[in-house]
Amino acid sequence: MKKSKPLDVKALWEAAKASEHGEAYCALDKNPNFRIGVGVRLTPSNTSFFVEILIYLCPSFRNADLDALEKSLTCLKGLKARNYTLTCQDGNCVSCEAEVSAANLTEEYGEIKTLMKASFG
Hints:
- Helices cover 35% and strands 35% of the residues.
- By secondary structure, the protein is of the alpha+beta class.
- The chain has one domain (9-120): Yope Regulator, Chain: A.
- The protein has a five-stranded antiparallel sheet with strand order 1-2-3-5-4.
C-alpha cells in the first residue's frame, strides 16, 4: 500500500462547511484493489462523519482473478462484521461505508488500513 495522506478531521469539517452541498471527502489510500476515504456530511440537524472503502472486484479488468476475488470476499466479510453497509456499484466495485464519530474517525481509519493489509497483503 502506498504511503497514505494524513487525516485532518478539522480541515475536513471546514471544507464541508464551505461546500455548497455541505459535504467533503478525502481519499487517503488507493491501490488497484481498493480505495479508502473519509468524509463528512452536514445537514441542519446532523453532522455525520464516515469512512468509505471501494473494493475493486476484478482489478485487471481482463480475466477474473480468483485469488483477488477471494481476498476481496475476505475483506468484504470483515467490513460487514464491522457494520459497514455494502453496496454494489457500476464499474466492478463494492462501496462499503460506515458512519463514525469525529473522535473515532482516525482510529477507525487505522483499523481499516490494518484490515486492508491483512486482506490484500
